[in-house]
Amino acid sequence: ALYNPKSIEFCVLLGLFLYMEHHKATFPKAEHLTGTLAIETLFEQGDGFIAFPLRVVYQLVPKTDTPPIQVLVSVPKKRFKHAVDRNRFKRLIRESYRLNKHLLYNTVEQTNFTLRIAFCAVSNELPTFSVVEAKMQQALTKLQQRVSETITAEL
Prior knowledge:
The chain is of the alpha+beta class. The protein has five helices and four strands; from the N terminus they run ααβββααβα. Helices cover 50% and strands 19% of the residues.
């Protein structure tokens, strides 16, 4: 019954497959923000806001041959003494970004800019994935609004 093209289950699976083909939920190495100069420039000249437990710093730069969005994830040793806790928090942030980046990606992809983002942990306690994901969705929505305002102001 699942492979019957007239069944609802088949149509739902086909639609999900086609959606996932168009919107790949990946976080490849090219999208990781690296390089001392790029990171220093981001923190010196970038704008930011807090979506607790995340601090988001972002900067729009002219497009080069890099991906439309580059991301840095930072969890300070000052707040989380044990490496396993820092790594767990970073994993939660990366996974929630990977699953929700479509909220922002389409907006930036159509412009002549590259968006650099840093997600920094500001909480003293390790949150659950549901909390991080909800705040990531909130942060990406707010970031999309700010980026679209900046782009329209520059045009």
